[in-house]
Amino acid sequence: MPWKEDSKVKQRHRLVTAMLSRKQAIKHLCEEAGVSRQTAYKYLTQFQQLGRGGLYDQPRANQREAACVRWKKCVFALRRHYPSWGARKLLYRLKQLHSGKDWPCERTVQKWLHLGGYARRLKRKRAGRGLVPEVLKASASNALWTVDFKGWFCTQTGAKVQPLTVRDHYSKYLLTVQPVRSLHEKVIRKRFVRLFQEYGLPKAILTDQGMPFCGSGPYGLTRLSLWWHRLGIKVQFVNRKAGITNNAHEQMHQVLQKEVASLPARSMREQRKALEKWRQIYNTIRPHDAIGLRPPHSKYRPKPKALPQLRSPKYPPSWKTYTVKTQGHIQLNHQIHGIGRAFGGLPIGLEPISPTSYRIHFGTLILGELHPHQEPNLRPHRLN
Known about the structure:
- By secondary structure, this protein is α+β, with helices and mostly antiparallel strands.
- The protein has helices at residues 8-21, 26-33, 37-50, 60-81, 87-97, 106-115, 185-199, 223-230, 247-261, 268-284; strands at residues 145-149, 153-154, 160-161, 163-168, 174-179, 204-207, 234-237, 320-323, 329-332, 335-338, 347-354, 357-362, 365-370, 379-380.
- Helix content is 35%, strand content 16%.
């Protein structure tokens, strides 16, 4: 029968002492004490770890408080290591690094961050008309790349740093974040050759309306973006009125500014290493809300291949063919007509639409119409 005449602690001490002596079977000891085998082994473990004090009832409130203190320390340590991460990302990383079941909820982590001075008070947003949905959608890796330059900053020695950032829109995978020595088309083109060879060709590229991506010629194409087009890549530029934005890419720049650019390295060499280290963390560790709190590398699938050979377009025999001068013009009937610097050195086709007017083609692109007797300038078509 159970040991009712003794206190609980004495009963438990007698039970664990009998279990340690191994003179009787555990099953008979548990039946005699009126406890289950699981409970008996719990008392035995607590006795071996804490001695006789482990046999007293442990208040559950104290256990919860101790767990909160432990998780709070872990959250603050992660926040110091990742200063731009919010409660959701910190909780995701906490579950990766530590085992346990009594996880704090996201709201509790957010409360700890506010009380610890690690998060600023969020302003209440007013109701508005809402954002215009993005026009371009990506359903797979390399369907759409977003490209931009991070605003320049200086190292501690005064060297100017202006990183070129390229990101896969579907997986949020950051392909490059390395500084370039110049914004010249040839320099940027070499960088994209390496990216295409390593990761493959995207189906589309989205950039802002700045050099060296966008110019003042037909379709806004420059030598760089026209090269993308000739490789079979669709080129689109930011147009907020049409709902085409690059907001997600700019948000990534804000994280880059806070975690890297605001703490510049001493030299350019060290800065390159710091940027590459941050890119690895961004791709392999940092969870992203847009992809279900997963790191980008878990969704990105590169498709490296050799670049296709560029071929000059062919035109019907009835058309006139001209090679655009380096400065971006042609000479027709002793008159100079501007076509665009992007097409310098490339052949264009003039389709007759009247005895004195032509429709200007470059491959599948219609650059505009030329009416030499009315005006010398080309009338460009808008990008479809």
